[in-house]
Amino acid sequence: MKNRTTSKTLIENKEVYRDKSARGWAIIIMPDEIRIDNYHGFPHIHLSLNGEKIQINYNDREDVFIIIKNHILKNKDIIKKELLGELL
Fold first, then answer.
1. Would you say 47 and 40 are in contact if contact means Cβ atoms under 8 Å apart?
2. Which of 2, 28, 30, 43 satisfies CB 3.0 to 4.6 Å to 38 for a cystine?
3. Chain segment 21-72, per-residue pLDDT in tens
4. Distances (CA, A) of 63 to 2, 49, 59
5. 30 vs 3, 16, 41, 50, CA distance in Å?
């Protein structure tokens, strides 16, 4: 049996999914289709599904979740360029 945890949190009008497994972790923001994960050896963000990987400075899933949560609460939406700046 694989050791995996998944949760979904509603923040404003965004569904934020958190996933953690032996392979790494991921956070997905819907409906914006933004994915942040560390599955390829380093933490990175995809600003669209199958989009370019941009390395970020945070490797802790909960730290990244708090940054995302605060960003959504402050802006009432996702502003991709600002979110990227907050994670770099």
1. no
2. 43
3. 888 999 999 999 999 999 888 999 999 877 789 999 999 999 999 999 999 9
4. 24, 22, 8
5. 24, 6, 24, 14
Pairing between β-strand 5-11 and β-strand 53-55 as defined by DSSP bridges? unpaired
pTM of the model: 0.89
Domain tally for the chain? Answer: 1
Domain coverage including residue 17: 5-87
Across the chain, where does the E strand assignment appear? 5-11, 14-21, 24-30, 34-37, 44-46, 53-55
Tell me how far CA of residue 19 lies from CA of 68, 79, 82, 86, in angstroms.
15, 23, 23, 21
> Tokens 């997905």 sit at which residue?
28
Among 66, 63, 62, 59, which Cα is nearest to 44's? 59
